[in-house]
Amino acid sequence: MKEFLKGIRLAVYLTSVITIASGVMLIAWPLEVTGLICRIFGVLLVVMGAVQLFGYFMEGSGMLSVAAGLLFVLLGAWIFTHPGSVAQLVPIGIGVVMIMHSLKDFQMASEVKRSGNGNWQLLFLLALLNFALGVVCICDSFGVLTIAVRVLGIALVYDGISDIVIVHHTTKAIRKAAAQLEPIDVESRDL
């Protein structure tokens, strides 16, 4: 049991250190890490496309394989050469969704105002804040991306540190409980 717990503790400590290091990298270099992830994704798409094309030439598997292969290769090459553009699309997409939701929120706030019931001013302010955040996501997508990646980094650092603390206290409690167990001395009898 002792060796089992020791192995678990070592594995958690190792993964925690990797998690903390990853978080620190996200905090220190958010755009660079995002660009690297996009480039890796681009390479994976190129490889997938090449496999599709290779399959067509080896097995003659149909024009769909050629079309998919070319699409993957071209998309992967574009993502690899323009990683910032791809990373920038995520906050822009989120911003568009937020603006669409805020328009619906404005409509619901006006319905509440027309009904004469409820606090329509608060609903209107919440919709306005949602709209403003959507505009910020679209207009400053790199800034939003940087903040989001740094928040992810902070979450990873917290996760790693909390895992270390939890495992430390758990193994300490298990050792203490094991030390308090006293063997029971009884006489055996045959039945």
Overall spatial form: extended
Strand tally: 0
Give the proportion of residues in helices: over 70%
Major β-sheet profile: none
State Rg. Answer: 28 Å
Uncertain spans: none
Characterization of this structure:
- By secondary structure, the protein is mainly α.
- 88% of the residues lie in helices and 0% in strands.
- The chain has helices at residues 2-28, 30-59, 63-81, 83-115, 120-139, 141-180.
- Helix 2 (30-59) crosses helix 4 (83-115), helix 4 packs antiparallel against helix 5 (120-139) and helix 4 packs across helix 6 (141-180).
- The longest helix is centred in the C-terminal third of the chain and has 40 residues, at 141-180.
- The protein is extended.
Throw out a few tags for this protein.
191 residues; mainly alpha; extended
Write a compact overview of the structure shown.
The chain is mainly alpha-helical. The chain has six helices and no strands.
